[in-house]
């Protein structure tokens, strides 16, 4: 699903954020991307999203080499990926429903289709009673659940999270981790970047540890879980439209 071959990322100021990373993540895996501040976790996620190009090496997502993608194809790539960041990035003047719906609006999906999909996704993150609330009326954990719903509503095959619990207390962090675990059980491939080592043994997952840009350990794909009986339509790779180059 996600393959990196000898990937190095040097920023223009000369900092080597990632050095010679070789790793493959299979469809349906839950991978933590662990490591201290500055390890290269966010850079790893930015490369997958094509926010930054790799300096050296190749990255393949669903068999497509990111180097070969035309800029016009990047939005198609991103349709396969939901992203959640540490600072929820909600639109302050839109209510919860609209903050989630926007991910479908920009794809040109009709209102008739949007309403049930947003409702179903809010239900999944436990926020079905909050759809008319404004973001500032919500707790940090609730805001992060809105951000997760927004990342999920398009039923992406891959869910990327960059420190999604960074602003939350330990109880809320676990709650958010459990939502990701749920999504994973429904078939999504999850990459969850965190420097919080207390989260790592809370769910069965592969742990990729970065330090100063090096992949220093990989616990291996110990658990590849798939619960096809309870699949969210479209989260399985085979249900998701591919992206063209
Ligand atoms: N845009 C940039 N320009 C130059 N250097 C950068 C840039 N972004 C990150 N870096 C550097 O690359 C290295 C890796 O940064 P990155 O943000 O990927 O680490 P991280 O593991 O996400 O850290 P944190 O846990 O603090 O979020 C750091 O040394 C950082 O200073
Ligand atoms: Mg980071």
What's the SSE blueprint?
Blueprint: E1 2-10, E2 16-25, E3 30-34, H1 41-48, E4 56-61, E5 64-65, H2 74-78, E6 81-85, H3 96-105, H4 111-124, H5 140-152, E7 158-162, H6 170-185, E8 189-194, E9 206-211, E10 214-218
Helix pairs in contact: 3-4, 3-5, 4-5, 5-6
The protein binds adenosine-5'-triphosphate (ATP) and magnesium ion (MG).
Residues 11, 13, 15, 17, 35, 37-43, 195 line the site of adenosine-5'-triphosphate.
CATH superfamily of the largest domain: P-loop containing nucleotide triphosphate hydrolases
Number of strands: 10
Number of helices: 6
CATH class membership of the largest domain: Alpha Beta
Reading the helices and strands in chain order gives EEEHEEHEHHHEHEEE
Largest sheet: 6 strands, mixed
Domain count, please report it: 2
Average of pLDDT: 89
Q: Say what the CATH topology of the largest domain is.
A: Rossmann fold
Which features characterize this protein?
6 helices, 245 residues, disordered C terminus, 2 domains, globular, binds magnesium ion, 24% strand, binds adenosine-5'-triphosphate, Rossmann fold, 27% helix, six-stranded mixed sheet, alpha/beta, four-stranded antiparallel sheet
């Amino acid at each position: 699903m996600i393959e990196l071959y000898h990937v190095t990322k040097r920023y223009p100021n000369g900092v080597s954020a990632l050095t010679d990373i070789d790793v493959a993540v299979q469809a349906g895996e839950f991978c933590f991307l662990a490591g201290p501040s500055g390890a290269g976790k966010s850079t790893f996620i930015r490369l997958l999203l094509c926010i930054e190009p790799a300096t050296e090496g190749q990255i393949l997502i669903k068999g497509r080499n990111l180097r070969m993608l035309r800029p016009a194809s990047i939005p198609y790539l991103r349709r396969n990926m939901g992203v959640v960041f540490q600072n929820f990035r909600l639109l302050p003047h839109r209510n919860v429903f609209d903050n989630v719906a926007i991910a479908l609006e920009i794809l040109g999906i009709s209102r008739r289709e949007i309403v049930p999909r947003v409702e179903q996704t809010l239900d999944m993150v436990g926020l079905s009673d909050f759809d008319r609330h404004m973001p500032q009326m919500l707790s940090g954990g609730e805001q992060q659940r809105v951000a997760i719903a927004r990342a999920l509503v398009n039923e992406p095959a891959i869910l990327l999270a960059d420190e999604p619990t960074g602003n939350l207390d330990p109880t809320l962090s676990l709650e958010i981790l459990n939502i990701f675990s749920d999504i994973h059980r429904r078939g999504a491939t999850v990459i969850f970047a965190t420097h919080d080592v207390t989260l790592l043994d809370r769910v069965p997952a592969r742990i990729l540890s970065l330090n100063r840009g090096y992949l220093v350990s990989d616990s291996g794909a110990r658990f590849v879980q798939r619960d096809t009986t309870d699949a969210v339509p479209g989260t399985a790779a085979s249900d998701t439209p591919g992206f063209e180059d």
